[in-house]
Amino acid sequence: MNDYRIAAIPGDGIGNEVLPEGIRVLEAAGKRFGLSFTFDHFDWSCEHYAKHGRMMPEGGLDLIRKHHAIFLGAVGFPGVPDHVSLWGLLIPIRRDFNQYVNLRPCRVLQGMKSPLAGRGPDDIDFYVVRENVEGEYSEIGGRMFRGTEHETAMQESIFTRRGTDRVMRYAFELARKRAKKHVTSATKSNGIVHTMPFWDERFAAMKANYPDIRADQFHIDILTAHFVQHPDWFDVVVGSNLFGDILSDLGPAVAGSIGIAPSANINPEREFPSMFEPVHGSAPDIAGKGIANPIGQIWSGAMMLEHLGHKDAADAVVRAIEVALADPKARTRDLGGSANTVECGRIIAEAVATA
Ligand code: NAI
Ligand code: MG
């Protein structure tokens, strides 16, 4: 019953260095909490593309459709255009498996320093809920008159009632489980006059179902300023694919280093596996040196544990990360220390036993 089959996709660059540390910590948590994991490894990556002309084999998704979850490192590397690597691997997984929620906790952990002066763990603790399968990131559009002075590019946004309602419902349900019980919507209905007023209408309709939750909304431009100036205002922030993408990089940035930020691509109905991955990319500038911070991957593993129904194990992993952050010997270079990836991962795995 507590045996889990996990598809492990290290991907590119530092994905290959941090994923093993994520696995090390999951195994340590499993040992303590009576969970067992079988990791099936898939070498889908830009290297795979260089060899076979595809990021993953044809029918690849069928190989991981029945897994309990997907644990991914990072995808993308110089030599393969980013839109090719992204649309060849990450986006098909997100869409085929209907992972319509992209969830990112933005929290200053004990032992971390926010780049915002005077802000600490009490001020920054919110979630960004990003719509992950439709909106601005659509395949509908085209290019005409290429290479001439009449060259034209057009791309349509897709906002469906079903897609909008379900991500907003997820945000309200999440807020219900939290102390502040507050949802903020990211909009731009003053400038984008069809889809965003629709988004606002659906938000108003959804909020009527949740009288116990405080709800408000801001236009995306001022909202980014508020993230920096008033991060303590937020609890759960819901946005479209594009706005959520921007906010979900800004949020972790105000909470500390990109190297520690985790994310989850969730299919809330559990018809398909959900995918857990650090926010950062493949970091070509430091890849192969063994110095990447594995905490983003490890914290993503904690989100996976929580999704699988083991909040106690997830909390222990986050506490173990906090223990490590307080230990100068565990800090990687991006956090001002000199630990390498494996040293940091080992200290966290050891701490999980008692944290
Ligand atoms: P990046 O996140 O890979 O790197 C940005 C900067 O942060 C670099 O200086 C890097 O050294 C540093 N950094 C990132 N993760 C770190 C870690 N764990 N420890 C220490 N330092 C870390 O973003 P970039 O350079 O824009 O993208 C590189 C490649 O990764 C591109 O091909 C991009 O498409 C891909 N990418 C993939 C993502 C994914 O798989 N979800 C997300 C973001 C980028
Ligand atoms: Mg992004």
UniProtKB/TrEMBL annotation:
Please name the pathway. Answer: Carbohydrate acid metabolism; tartrate degradation; 2-hydroxy-3-oxosuccinate from meso-tartrate: step 1/1; Carbohydrate acid metabolism; tartrate degradation; 2-hydroxy-3-oxosuccinate from L-tartrate: step 1/1; Carbohydrate acid metabolism; tartrate degradation; D-glycerate from L-tartrate: step 1/1
Q: Which cofactor does it need?
A: Mn(2+); Mg(2+); K(+)
* InterPro entries named in the record: ICDH/IPMDH, IsoCit/isopropylmalate_DH_CS, IsoPropMal-DH-like_dom, TTC_DH
Top-rank taxon, per record: Bacteria
Q: Annotated Gene Ontology MF terms?
A: D-malate dehydrogenase (decarboxylating) (NAD+) activity; magnesium ion binding; NAD binding; tartrate decarboxylase activity; tartrate dehydrogenase activity
The EC number of this protein is 1.1.1.83, 1.1.1.93, 4.1.1.73
Catalytic activity as recorded in UniProt: (R)-malate + NAD(+) = pyruvate + CO2 + NADH; (2R,3R)-tartrate + H(+) = (R)-glycerate + CO2; tartrate + NAD(+) = 2-hydroxy-3-oxosuccinate + NADH + H(+); (2R,3R)-tartrate + NAD(+) = 2-hydroxy-3-oxosuccinate + NADH + H(+)
Entry's family note: Belongs to the isocitrate and isopropylmalate dehydrogenases family.
Q: What is this protein called?
A: D-malate dehydrogenase [decarboxylating]
Species this protein is from: Pseudorhodoplanes sinuspersici
Q: What lineage does UniProt assign to this protein's organism?
A: Bacteria, Pseudomonadati, Pseudomonadota, Alphaproteobacteria, Hyphomicrobiales
